[in-house]
Amino acid sequence: xxxxxxxxxxxxxxxxxxxELEPILSGPSLKLPPYEPEMAKLKDGSYLYIRPLEKDEVPxxxxxxxxxxxxxxxxxxIVGVRVYGELLGWxxxxxxxxxxxxxxxxxxxxxxxxxxxxNNGIHISLHSMAFVRGLRxxxxxYYAKAKYAFEKLGAKEWWQHMKVITDLRDGFRYGTTIIxxxxxxxxxGGAKVYYVTKEYWDLSIKDxxxxxxxxxxxxxxxxxxxxNKELIIPDSPVV
Length: 239
Description:
The protein has eight helices and nine strands. The N and C termini lie far apart (48 Å). The chain is α+β, with helices and mostly antiparallel strands. It has helices at 18-26, 58-66, 76-91, 137-152, 165-174, 198-203, 208-213, 222-227, and strands at 38-41, 47-52, 98-105, 108-117, 122-130, 157-160, 177-178, 194-197, 218-219. The protein has a nine-stranded mixed beta sheet, sandwiched between helices. Helices cover 33% and strands 21% of the residues. It has a single domain (34-227), classed as Gcn5-related N-acetyltransferase (GNAT) (Aminopeptidase), CATH 3.40.630.30.
């Protein structure tokens, strides 16, 4: 935009260092407390190790996620695009207050989950993914990020949207409530917002893993942490 000024000025050109502009473009961080690694015993006897994804691991993960763009069932292509963008947005400091978790089994990538803080009361669930079948990894990853939001970060509301039948299944099991639509829309495509409050989490959903997945999250042991020390990314996702 160009507009003539209504007064004489002593400087008609002002130069900025781009490092001065970056704080305006990226915004301040809330400096979230870290997610402490946890583990869950799976029905085959192995352990899912859940930990924060490190920012410097993003370039290693991006080629793997990119392969989902060619999968044309169960919305994997659009989920892949969005997750790729969210990872890149975090890596480039263009996503507000996100948190990313990965789940591994003996080091091999098995699950992914992410969300972000909208404000001090509302957290936005973005995506949860499983890269192994039959072990309920996706449900465990989803639970882990919701637990972190409510119990560590102090969320008052958890907003999610539903895109496939498994989301509906788990959403109904969670007892989510719909916010009036289209007055309030989820940032992922303007979808309906299904939400859970902290009060309802405490009353019911805390027991979800024990009741329906027959496992629970606990602090990761030194042995499980050591077995997952090296991140192994498969050649291709199992979808």
